[in-house]
Amino acid sequence: MSKLISYYQANGDRFVEGLKDLLRIPSISALPAHKADVRRAADFIVDDLKRMGIETVKLIEGEGHPIIYAEKMDAPGKPTVVLYGHYDVQPPDPVDLWTSPPFEPVIKEGKVYARGASDDKGQVMMFVEAMRSYLATGCKLPCHVTLLIEGEEECGSVTLPNVLEKHADLLTADLCVVSDTAMWQAPGSDGTPTATPAITYALRGLVYFDVKLHGPSRDLHSGVYGGTLPNPATLLTRVLGKLFDDDNQITIPGFYDDVAPPEDSERAEWEQLGFDEKQYLGEVGAEPFGEKGFTTLERRWARPSCDVNGIYGGDMGKGAKTVIPAFAGAKVSFRIPANMDPRKVSTSFEKWVRGHDVGNCRWELTNHGEAHPVATPTDSTWVHRASKAIEHVTGKPPVLVRDGATIPVIADFKTQLKLDTLLIGFGLNSDAIHSPNEHFGLDRFLLGCKCHAALLASLGSESGM
Q1: What pLDDT is recorded for position 343?
Q2: How far is residue 11 CA from its own chain's centroid?
Q3: In whole numbers, what is the pLDDT of the chain averaged over residues?
Q4: Which end of the chain is more exposed for a tag (fewer CB within 10 A), N or C?
């Protein structure tokens, strides 16, 4: 590793310039006007991989934006790791809240500001620079590596599931690693090695519904018709209000039957993390609230949750308009931990909704998607080797955490490719991803490059680092 570290020290500025070149490309996958830019970003990475000496590099085409596939199989008898990320980004709106143009990278106070800096171009380039460090110093990669970098993560990963099914033979591997998550603690501001990376070993799954209740054939005058017929908005909010009891538990019958409690050892580890729930929630102007009998971390990582994400219908403009709406709707989502089945949750929710008396109003339920929860055993060989690699670089082992969010493709890796996934990210929750002034600390960017290089070495060694 000393040879690689010397390479990083001599080339860190060049790494940053390469990242800035990629950040200048507005690869906004959700906007058709940027279709050519998305492909330009894909071509940029493909050309870079070829220049660094990776012979097998191609774009896999589908219905949407292309997927970058590359492989370097120079380690006979060693494991194969799939490194997954995405090169597309969110729209930059509202642009007027940016302190610098979103696609003109600016370095301020040791951070690069641009859309995609942290999510996920900066973290993808950590993979690329880790591989480059071996090849540029005349070293072979210590394990087989497959790169899979998509261009639709920010708009639903429409193409990827079909690619996984059609090209499963290209993705035979032992493990998947994703760098699209956060560290537990950032490096110290004085440059001391106080960083605490995290290995995320479990994600919650997702069930998402649009719930619409139809009533009269048109909006009606509430003075003429009020009190004489069922009001869809009134009835919808009444039903949604029954989703929770006084202990903030979800009231759908049998909902918690498959929820597996965390192991005592997990709880003990979580207690050692030093998690400050007041600081965590205080940053967004809130106080702890949720299912009775559980800590904030348990609610976020190991318990299911349900949220009304939006309500619409009737008069939603300024001023007063006294109408009974023809319909009312709501977006409702569930986050579900390991062992819960999203299809079972969907079926139970639909049955529960339709079981309420809403007069002659009519339900229209649209399932916008389901994703399975995923979990990798913390005692696995891969967790051990990854922990050794990170400890080798930072001087202390990473913390092992769950995450309450969902990355649907991780479930696809598990169900379609039978791959466990480790999420080893170097972002921070304060990086303003999906928001104006997104940024990524350059110290974390370079730390991630080094950690991923060490990770490849550790994955290729039976004893770890």
Answers
A1: 97
A2: 30
A3: 94
A4: N
* 433 compared with 462, residue with greater pLDDT: 433
Q: Would the pLDDT of 193 be above 90?
A: no
Rounded CA gap, 89 and 434, in Å?
A: 8
- Check pLDDT > 90 for residue 465: no
Residue 361, both tokens: 């109003």
Provide the pLDDT for residue 429: 85
Place of tokens 């819960």: 340
pLDDT tens digit string along 40-79? 999 999 999 999 999 999 999 988 999 999 999 989 999 9
Pair 386, 422: CB distance under 8 Å: yes
Region 360-387: what's the mean pLDDT?
95
Give the burial class of 97: count Cβ atoms within 10 A of its Cβ; 0-12 exposed, 13-18 middle, 19 or more buried. Answer: exposed
Q: Would you say residue 383 has pLDDT above 90? A: yes
For residue 113, which amino acid is it? Answer: Y
- Residue 218 carries which side chain, given as an amino acid letter? R
pLDDT tens for each residue of 412-427: 999 899 999 999 999 9
- The rounded distance, in Å, linking the Cα atoms of 131 and 151 is 21
In SS3 terms, the chain reads as CHHHHHHHHHHHHHHHHHHHHHHCCCCECCCHHHHHHHHHHHHHHHHHHHHCCCCEEEEECCCCCCEEEEEECCCCCCCEEEEEEECCECCCCCHHHCCCCCCCCEEECCEEECCCCCCCHHHHHHHHHHHHHHHHCCCCCCCEEEEEEECCHHHCCCCHHHHHHHCHHHHCCCEEEECCCECCECCCCCCCCCCECEEEEEECEEEEEEEEEECCCCCEEHHHHCCCCCCHHHHHHHHHHCCECCCCCECCCCCCCCCCCCCHHHHHHHHCCCCCHHHHHHCCCCCCCCCCCCCHHHHHHCCCEEEEEEEECCCCCCCCCCEECCEEEEEEEEEECCCCCHHHHHHHHHHHHHCCCCCCCEEEEEEEEEECCEECCCCCHHHHHHHHHHHHHHCCCCEEEEECCCCHHHHHHHHHHCCCEEEEECECHHHCCCCCCCEEEHHHHHHHHHHHHHHHHHHCCCCCC
Residue (of 273, 267, 278, 327) closest to 303 by Cα position: 267
Q: What is the model's pLDDT at position 256? A: 98
* The amino acid at 280: Y
Please tell me the distance from the alpha carbon of residue 178 to that of residue 24, in angstroms, as a whole number: 23
Alpha-carbon gap, residue 87 to 27, rounded angstroms: 7
